Amino acid sequence: MNSYSLGLAGSWWLVVLIILAAAAFAFYSYRVTVPPVSSGRRSLLLFLRTLAISLLLFVLFEPVLNIVRSTEEPPHLAVLLDNSLSMSFKDAQSDRRESFKSSLNSAKPFDIDESATTLLFSDDIKRVQNFTFDSLKLKGQLSDISKPLNYVLQNAEPDNLRAALLITDGAFNSGNNPLNQAELIGRPLYIIGIGDSTEPRDISVQSIVTNDVAYIETTLPVNVNVKSAGFTEGSITVVLKDNGAKIAEQIISLKTDQQLYTTSFQYIPKQEGIRKLTAEIAPREGEITTKNNAASEFVKVLKTKRQIVLFAGAPSPDVSFIRNEILKEKGAEIQTFIQKQGAEFYEGNPGAGVLKEAELIILIGFPNSASPSNVIQQIAQEAGNGKPVLFVLSQQTDFKKLQPLEAYLPFTTVSSRPQEFLALADVKQDQASNPLLKITGTDGDIAVWNQLPPLFRTETFVKVKPESEVAATIRVNNVPLAEPLIVSRSFQRSKSIALLGYGLYRWKLAGQAADIFKGKTDAPDVLNAFLQNSSRWLTADNDQKTVRIRTNKKLYTSGERVEFIAQVYDAAYTPLDNADVRVKINGGKSPRDIVMQPIGNGRYTANLDGMPEGDYSFTGDARQNSRALGSDNGRFSVGEIALEYQNLRMNVELLRALAERTGGKFYTPAQAAAFKDDLLKSKNFAPRPVTKRNEFALWNLPWLLGAAILAFALEWFLRKRSGLI
After folding, report:
1. Cα separation of 74 and 161, whole Å?
2. What is the pTM of this model?
3. What confidence score (pLDDT) does residue 278 get?
4. What is the DSSP code (8-state) at residue 415?
5. 453, 456, 459, 463 alpha-carbon torsion, rounded to 10°
6. Using CA atoms, how far apart are residues 317 and 327, in angstroms rounded to an integer?
7. 29-50 tens-digit pLDDT
8. d(CA 460, CA 543)
9. Helices (H), 282-414
10. What's the pLDDT score for residue 238?
11. Cα dist. 6→13, 21, 67, 140, 706 in Å?
12. Strand order in the sheet with 547-551
């Protein structure tokens, strides 16, 4: 049903009166003509003038035409089809692919709604037009049921989706819990469950749990989680392999009342690089599939422990205490160079390779007046390359010799005298969240710092750099001074910390040890906490490169697209969009070379399709105007992944809950034919009235003005033809 109305900016009576006045004016103008014309022509002239004036006056009142149309929009159906790999399995009693096809044929969703919204989902969703069963490839590597449900939620109102048919096995392994999403839809979900709801006979490696990074000749725990369903007697052997070579095995005895088992291995890497650890179980007779009998993880093996180099201007208690506390950190290895009376070191002169391999440089009272300049320059060069520095003051520190290093420290020296005095740490409340000062992680940490024994300090005055942060200042005779004690700096990929005091052993001996002697067994070890915090903060992201190249995953299935992602920066860590990024892939029958394409903000991407099964390594480099910017490398594998094989039964509990909570219904493939009748009988699946209102601003239409001008033009033409004055 349609309705029409015409609105004006003024009164209709006024419009009518003005139009009548225009007609009267036209009549008055043509009551007598010179020369006289026929009555027919005079009437035509009178009409044209009245029409032209009336149209102009009508437009001045801004007329608006309102049209209201009421129609009914038919209900629409969303058909959500699981396109993941698990839908192609063969259960003990049925073939899921055939059950899927027969369920679609029985349910006849496209007979109900020819324009049904059809979504295929696995790890992502894909909308298809003119659906046929051949559109289903059933090769998706993940099952995310929440994504198609979210699509229905977002499009229910605009597309009038009144119900959804979901065909799946319910074994979701990615995304959010679909129950949470379904409750928000407000539409019934009719679900056809595919697969066997009973647990099939199967043994699978569920996961490998270990660290991402390991060190040569250092034990790395590797936990392997195994699931056994349908096998309750005997034993299974779990084999651990390193790059395909067997390194250990464990035997698990199966129990009647247990399905999940965990076994532990002690892996000791022998070679550096990215190693592929694989846990395998020999197939047993009667298993539904053997494709989940193995799982893999990649571990990055580093050549040595984390290398720390310590330079000291002379032997001192601080050197011993700091060295011992740093060694308490797992994976840390410290190499010391302590000066003798002259320019020599007790350990011998440091070579350039020592500093190149270091991840952290510690300076304690170094340099002094006798420190060799070439060593100072080597340290400055490595600091310029991004090596972090921890600087600890001493009475013998020579600030003139320190000048080459000041560019990488958080301060510049204003003046210095070796006169020493005692100073207490003064930490303000606004530093409670400073990671360097964390002891217990509570507000009480500030009080602990402010109660520490005093340190020694020389009359050294420094200027803190603008990008630096003062963590603690000093108090002398309990009077707060603005002079810094602990300062940190993070700027352009360079990090440093300066502790402008010495006698740190006092925090240990006169602080923690004294408290323990008094019976406070829980006295905090501030020195250990500070040094551990400083070491972690300084070396965090220390492996950050100007060129980073990786694949979006480490493990792919056969035929899956391999995506390479790169990030390229200059020395100031500014993204570069005009670099030439190339990757060489080794593995398979022959090497492959690819050129990555920029996508903005220093990011590059490239894709590879059709990679055969196998292990691959890659090296990539970036150049700009023939200048090398950096390189990166990595590994990935193409083969069967076990994730879709981890849960082989239909999750009937989830599917029934989805149907019940949304007011829908659950079907087995044998019951799928009932779907059509149930949906058509549903009160929810009904047309909705749609009212559309359209407004047309007639005063803004050019043809009204054109009609008025045409009427005036015709009048003028006829007057000229008639010779009227």
Report:
1. 10
2. 0.53
3. 92
4. E
5. -70
6. 16
7. 777 777 887 878 878 888 888 8
8. 34
9. 317-327, 352-357, 373-384, 403-406
10. 94
11. 14, 22, 9, 58, 21
12. 547-551, 562-568, 603-608, 597-600
Grouping H, G, I as helix, E, B as strand and the rest as coil, residue 95 is strand
Lookup: tokens for 270? 């022998």
Residue 270's pLDDT is 87
What one-letter code names the amino acid at 17? L
Burial of 6 (0-12, 13-18, 19+ CB in 10 A): exposed
d(CA 188, CA 711): 62
Task: Classify strands 273-281 and 260-267 as parallel, antiparallel or unpaired.
Answer: unpaired
Three-state DSSP class for 585?
strand
C-alpha–C-alpha distance, residues 474 and 302, integer Å: 41
Q: Kindly report the length of the chain.
A: 725
Name the residue with higher pLDDT: 557 or 333: 333
| Cα 442-444-448 angle, rounded to 5 deg | 125
The whole-angstrom distance between residue 156's C-alpha and the CA centroid of its chain comes to: 28
Question: Residue 544: is its pLDDT beyond 60?
Answer: no
Distance CA 334, CA 321 (A): 13
Task: Identify the pLDDT of residue 690.
Answer: 73
pLDDT of residue 154: 92
Q: Are 82 and 44 in contact (CB under 8 A)?
A: no
Q: 178-187, 672-681, 684-693: which has the highest mean pLDDT?
A: 672-681
Residue 515 phi/psi, 5-degree rounding, is -65, -40
**Nearest C-alpha neighbor of 348 from the set 356, 339, 358:** 339
Go through 655-668 and write b for each residue having 16 or more CB atoms within 10 A of its CB, e for each that does not: bbbbbeebebbbbe
Name the helix (H) or strand (E) containing 458.
strand 455-464
Going by pLDDT thresholds of 50, 70 and 90, the confidence category of residue 110 is very high
Packed helices 526-539 and 317-327: angle between N→C axes, nearest 10 degrees: 70
Structure confidence at residue 327 (pLDDT): 85
Answer for the pair 484, 411: CB distance below 8 angstroms, yes or no: yes
Please, which pLDDT band fits residue 503 given cuts at 50, 70 and 90?
Answer: very high
Assign 357 to helix, strand or coil: helix
Q: Using pLDDT thresholds of 50, 70 and 90, give the confidence band for residue 1.
A: low
Beta-strand runs (E) in 140-293: 161-168, 189-193, 202-209, 213-215, 220-229, 235-242, 245-253, 260-267, 273-281
Q: β-pairing, 306-312 with 332-338?
A: parallel
Q: Are 3 and 68 in contact (CB under 8 A)?
A: yes
625: phi then psi, degrees, rounded to nearest 5: 55, 45
Q: Which residues in 292-359 belong to E strands, given as ranges?
A: 294-302, 306-312, 332-338
Whole-number Å distance between alpha carbons of 288 and 203: 9
* Radius of gyration of the chain from its Cα atoms, rounded to whole angstroms: 41
pLDDT in tens, 145-165: 999 999 999 999 989 999 999
